[in-house]
Amino acid sequence: MPKREDIHKVMIIGSGPIVIGQACEFDYSGTQACKALRKLGYEIVLVNSNPATIMTDPGMADVTYIEPLNLQSMIEIIENERPDAILPNLGGQTGLNLTSELHRKGILGKYGVQVIGVQVDAIERGEDRMAFKETMNRLGIEMPKSEIAYSVDQAEAIAANLGYPVVIRPAYTMGGTGGGHVYNPEELRVIAARGLAASPVGQILVEESVLGWEELEIEVVRDAKNRMITVCFIENVDAMGVHTGDSFCTAPMLTISKELQNKLQKYSYDIVEAIRVIGGTNIQFAHDPKTGRVVVIEINPRTSRSSALASKATGFPIAFISAMLAVGLTMDEIPYWREGTLEKYTPWGDHVVVKFARWDFEKFPGAEDKLGTQMRAVGEVMSIGKTYKEAFQKSIRSLEKGRYGLGFARDYNHKTLEELMDLLVEPSSERQFIMYEALRKGAGVDELSRKTHIKDWFIEQMKELVELEEDILKYRNGELPDGLLVQAKKDGFADRYLSQILGIPEEKIRTRRIGLGVVESWDAVPVSGVDNAAYYYSTYNAPDRVAATANRKVMVLGGGPNRIGQGIEFDYCCVHAAFALRDEGIESIMVNCNPETVSTDYDTSDRLYFEPLTVEDVLAIYEKEKPEGVIVQFGGQTPLNIAGELARAGVKILGTSVDTIDLAEDRDRFRRMMDRLDIPMPASGMAINIEEALTIAKKLGYPLMVRPSYVLGGRGMEVVHDEEMLKLYMKNAVVVTPDRPILIDKFLDNAIECEADAISDGKDTFVPAVMEHIELAGIHSGDSACVIPPISIPARHIDTIVEYTSKIARELNVVGLMNMQYAIANDVVYVLEANPRASRTVPLVSKVCNVSMARIATQLMLGRRLRDLNLKNRVVPHFGVKEAVFPFNMYPEVDPLLGPEMRSTGEVLGLADSFGLAFYKAEEAADQVLPAEGTVLITVSDRDKHAAVEMAREFKKLGFRIKATKGTHRFLNDNGVEADAILKMHEGRPHIVDAIKNKEIDLIINTPSGKLSKYDDSYIRKAAIRYRVPYITTLAASVAAARGIGALKHGHGRARSLQSYHRDILV
Fold first, then answer.
1. Per residue in 360-387, is it b (16+ CB within 10 Å) or e — as a string?
2. What is the spatial order of strands in the sheet that 9-13 belongs to?
3. Is the sign of the CA dihedral 733, 736, 738, 742 positive or negative?
4. Under 8 Å CB-to-CB from 449, ≥6 apart: which residues?
5. Cα dihedral value 385, 389, 394, 399, nearest 10
6. C-alpha distance from residue 239 to each of 146, 329, 372, 422, 435 (Å)
């Protein structure tokens, strides 16, 4: 069937900010859809609230809306653009839920908008637990025994009937949000209440537990002719009970019989045919290996996290193909490199893929490192090898956790076997590393399998790695026999790991193996659905099958796995670098290992190497391709951490030099430079032990800001108020970055923080915008809301910031991007730090100001000059407010406080003609919708009480009723602000949490009482998250909220496209 001619304009809904359970895999799928449909001649209207993605760049769609993803915005955009069709199944759960809502409210019918790709009733059959169960019953496909509940009492009765343990699954959610395993009525009441709150339709499924069964996934694609193909069979190594987003998995299935795979495929085809999805669908099954019973767990009638993995594992771009199928094409019209056309596709390949999740539990003090049915991973890596062992070991060194192999992690090697087995009672992020040491201590394969429900075959493979490692360790500080070195490389042991366990330099290992002819070979993963495309992976288990070209070429190092502090913003920069290189006629070579991203799409670069970002792996590609240089400043800290070693090994680094990057991190050298340039910095020092730190503290005076050097995302950063806190910090923090000093700065209390992103060619510098942070100093820049242009910084200070930025860029000889952090205190602009690399705000500035910063920076690295690019300062007549999005709903045990260590997973952007409205829209997009009326709870610490009075008056003027806790209530009344008193939990009933539960409070403003308080007040903030009440923990943000609500009362404004905002910018 040819493409549909009855539709011309298609609306694509994105997935919004990066959150746990819904990450940048949807940036990847949405971008693929835009490419596919524009190639077919359709006009694209894209809607998303996330400024960090390449998807929301103005060139990716014909019309781009960066607006809150809610019903009102969707209605306004449909009224503005009048699309013929909406494609909902590429924007994760958000896209599906909004499309269902638009249908239910009659909006799609009113404006004649067709739903393509998946029908609305199909969304219900796939997502609504009751409808899905009815469909499965009709097909005769078994599900775990279950019943629907709409209240905690109903859930308790169902669980009593089913028998414990049971699983709670909220409807219309992602990442297992709100769900979990429960083992008794007490746990059920907590998790059922949480699940009902998390479900947008207030519905949960109470399901029999299939804990310990095999978890198996199939990725299926269907076209309008009802042709179905299986793209990929995925085997989760972790058994049922661990969310698939946290589970370590392989493709293809390595231990599942062909007979069982055929049965799962038949069930999948029956399900997809019944639900009538056009495009990709993910189906998850559980299989009891003891009885052979198979049950279907759930389906996702959309592209998913597993779709991105399946796409990259097989070379089958599911979202790209799904978009083409949604507009009428069928598989017999789409090319397939093996057998002509796509309906003949079968899973193929002589490689093994391993996906391993990355967690950042250390960012959340008090978080339990325990894995269950609610996802907690913040990112993932994918590795490709010829054998399972090779791919598995590659995945470990891809994680960037300072581990290059499975052994000697933490102190596990020093624990007894009994202690290790105790640690394996519940799944955790450390499970594979603990198992490795347990095997070394003599644990049996059967014993470990019983403990973990991981199949014997995978544990046997690990045992063989342990045995080989033990043989290698016999030669510590000696010469490793040739045969043992060859076997180690074939089984995936990294040069760095061998260096660590043998106690000899990595360069010596590398030189020796190269001398033996043991070098990485390369093979291709061919791409289906397009003509003549492939990407590449390394192996030590096959001959080299990939030829390098003689073209002019440049290598770009990507950012590796998403993690808190380093996310999709850096992938955005890498993608722009690849596009700019192509436009300059230079072959681009991308190196990355993140399956969720656009940088690892088959056609973003000319050549993609799906490899870990380690010295060994990057050097091997460099030696093969012989590029004229490598770009390291776009991938965050990942490439910077290896840039020095690469440069010493002879790699040419393009743009800003490695020495400059080191100088910016070396506080002594950087301070001397600032003194020479006559630029003020807060007083500071560096310490490598507690004694040095205490001496510096005595000289500077408290409070202090302390942090390790060479980190992103404020890792290990803290405000220290006294000697006891400093001693505790030094005791713990030195472990964070061994061999690198702790940086100690005088903390500027109540300072306005701001930052500037700049582009420099070594002589001239262009600063598109200065960003003002809404939170005051002490909140990490990645977690603080910020506004462009600034709203309270005088013009003379902005001029000073631009002047300082230009001076520093010239002195550092920055070529490319630079981010500067400033604080303004007592009418003085202080430099906090210089980062001569891409920052997480580059996409934000680029979109608000219509300046493609990463693209221009790439051109400068290739030798262009700023003066030739005709860049001019622009007057931005609108306001852009960035707001951070946090994963606290996935960590209910953690106090959701902000501080100098970053904790957000993503961000949103609010655009409007006034600051107040832009702030309101940003909060709306972050799912912290500010109330227009009602009751505000104010409970603030003693040091905030004076400032709280004016803020409380603002809320009174807006018509709000105020409730306040004892001390705040007394202070407000004494200062003429009428408020009602409310009790804290330790003071009696009814108290704050009762009022929250009873929906008597519409907004919470709570600044923490601090460590010196006799009573912990974290329960207020935790209750706000649990019962979905918007909450604010800084006074600066509460003042901005009052401005936002005030602006809302004068009208919400209408959704406007990014392109229309850009047209209003004055040069």
1. bbebbeebeeebbbbbbbbbbbbbbbbb
2. 63-66, 43-48, 9-13, 85-87, 114-115
3. negative
4. 455, 456, 459
5. 130
6. 20, 38, 11, 19, 15
Q: 461, 392 in Cβ contact below 8 A?
A: yes
Residue type at 833? E
Query: Secondary structure of 211-243 in the HEC alphabet?
Result: CCCEEEEEEEEECCCCCEEEEEEEEECCCCCCC
Q: Is 404 exposed, middle or buried (0-12, 13-18, 19+ CB in 10 A)?
A: buried
375 vs 380: CA distance, rounded Å: 12
* DSSP track, 920-986: HHHHHHTT-PPPSSSEEEEE--GGGHHHHHHHHHHHHHTT-EEEE-HHHHHHHHHTT---EE-B-GG
What is the rounded distance in angstroms from the CA atom of residue 743 to the CA atom of residue 255?
50
Q: Which residues contact 550 (CB under 8 A, 6 or more apart)?
A: none
Taking a C-beta distance cutoff of 8 angstroms, is the pair 769, 789 a contact?
Answer: yes
Write out 323-390 in H/E/C secondary structure. HHHHCCCCHHHCEECCCEEHHHCCCCCCCEEEEEEECCHHHCCCCCCCCCCCCCCCEEEEEEECCHHH
Distance CA 291, CA 451 (A): 19
Q: Is 471 exposed, middle or buried (0-12, 13-18, 19+ CB in 10 A)?
A: middle
DSSP 303: -
Amino acid at 101: E
Distance CA 961, CA 967 (A): 18
Using CA atoms of 82, 83, 89, 95 in order, give the dihedral in degrees to the nearest 10. Answer: -20
- Strand-strand pairing, 742-746 and 521-526: unpaired
Which uninterrupted H or E stretch holds 676?
Answer: helix 667-677
Q: Are 497 and 480 in contact (CB under 8 A)?
A: no
DSSP-derived secondary structure letter, 49: S
626-679 pLDDT per residue, tens: 999 999 999 999 999 999 999 999 999 999 999 998 888 887 789 899 999 999
- Mean predicted confidence (pLDDT) in 788-811: 97
Q: Is 139 helix (H, G, I), strand (E, B) or coil?
A: helix
Residue in the block written with tokens 């519940």: 426
* Cα 178 versus chain centre, distance: 19
Cα distance between residue 642 and residue 368, in whole Å: 32
Q: Which pLDDT does position 121 carry in this prediction?
A: 79
Per-residue pLDDT reduced to its tens digit, 988-1021: 999 999 999 999 999 999 988 655 445 678 889 9
Strands 114-115 and 85-87: parallel
- In eight-state DSSP terms, residue 205 is E
In this structure, how many other beta carbons lie within 10 angstroms of the beta carbon of residue 995?
Answer: 19
545 CB neighbour count, 10 Å cutoff: 11
Percent of residues, the chain, with pLDDT higher than 90: 76
